[in-house]
Amino acid sequence: MVASNSRFQILALSGGGYRGLFTARILAEIEQQIGARIGTRFDLVTGTSIGGILALAVALEIPAQKMVELFEKHGEAIFRKRFSIRGIFRSQYSNQTLLQHLSSDEVFGQRVLGECLHPVIVPSINYTRGDPVVFKTPHHADFKTDHHHRIVDVAMATSAAPIFFPRYVFNNCQYVDGGLFANTPGLLGAHEAYQFFGVSRAEGDVRVLSVGTMSSKFTVNPKRNRAGGTFDWGGWWPVNAPKRIFGLSISAQEAMVNHMLKHQFPKGKYVRIDDVLTDERAQAVALDKADAAAREVLLGSAAEAAKDFVGSPAFKDFMEYRAASPVYHYGSRANIQKAAQC
Fold it and tell me: Which residue numbers does the motif GXSXG cover (predicted)?
């Protein structure tokens, strides 16, 4: 066991629609190797969109394998297209199947954010106000309200991808996918460590383990129309234009954040687990592809990526660490008075 008062570990899980099955499988493989829930190795968990759903599961110590099975079994139902006249009048997919499964007692049920066993932060966008928002457990004295929110509401709010799913409404506000501004939330996690956990920038030993979703790089075909209109971006199907722009946005974000975290946390303190989609595999995988071919690529690639990580020095470095017991100021797990007495 690594013992260091200055050390602080962050687990950051990217968004990517059904490609999050890749992330879930990697987490499951790691849990199998360490014989424990992965949340016990991290002082903070953060995730966006599907990564946000998984981060909330990690914070509750729901076995990662259970999340793998959920998305394996119900992925095609979650991404079953509905009649929408090319996506003009409503989103391509309903969010009711996802809501139903996440609301089950086997997953989040009616539990609230303050019941999480490990600190977690999850980004979304409050479209009613036009502002980014980050839902948080009550690990700081200023965080007085979020702990009342149902976990399933936070999960649905962070994963309401425009065009794909309808906006999610709760607490009299409309929310859309946090991937629009923080699809790879490692920087959010680092900011949280310094700003709200009191980790010293000069003396603290912050480490970030980031898990991706086999994100594709969106590039231009030089033979296409360059006028910048709907046909340029989406071809004959208008709904493809905003979907492609959304994909380009989250792909570019991942690349930028990856570089910034490498600069901020050098010498093995930032580790990224991901895989690159080849041209052939990319045809089978997308944010909303959940068929047998997509499952084969995602699960197979995840197994290989997990194997590489487990065999690396980084695995031992990250997984021998044990996170300190969290201090919560409010909610059913509030323990700040006990902590002050110790």
Answer: 47-51
| Cα distance between residue 105 and residue 102, in whole Å | 8
> Quick one: tokens of 252?
């570019």
Instruction: List domains and CATH numbers for the chain.
Output: 7-336 (3.40.1090.10)
Q: Is 257 left (phi over 0), alpha (psi -120 to 50) or beta?
A: alpha
Task: Look at 163-167, 244-248, 316-320 and tell me which has the smallest mean pLDDT.
Answer: 244-248
Q: What is the pLDDT of residue 342?
A: 41
Q: What share of the chain is helix, strand, coil (3-state, %, to 5)?
A: 45, 15, 40
For the chain, the first-to-last Cα distance in angstroms comes to: 22
User: Who's near 85: CB < 8 A, 6+ residues apart?
Assistant: none
Taking the C-alpha atoms of residue 215 and residue 273, their distance in angstroms, rounded to an integer, is: 12
Q: How far is CA 79 from the centre of its chain?
A: 18
Quote the CA–CA distance of 190 and 212 in Å, as a whole number: 17
E strands of the chain, at which residues? 7-13, 44-47, 120-126, 131-136, 168-170, 173-177, 205-211, 270-273
Query: Would you please indicate which residues are annotated as catalytic (active-site) residues?
Result: 49, 177
For 296-341, what is each residue's pLDDT tens digit? 999 999 999 999 999 999 999 999 999 999 999 999 999 986 444 4
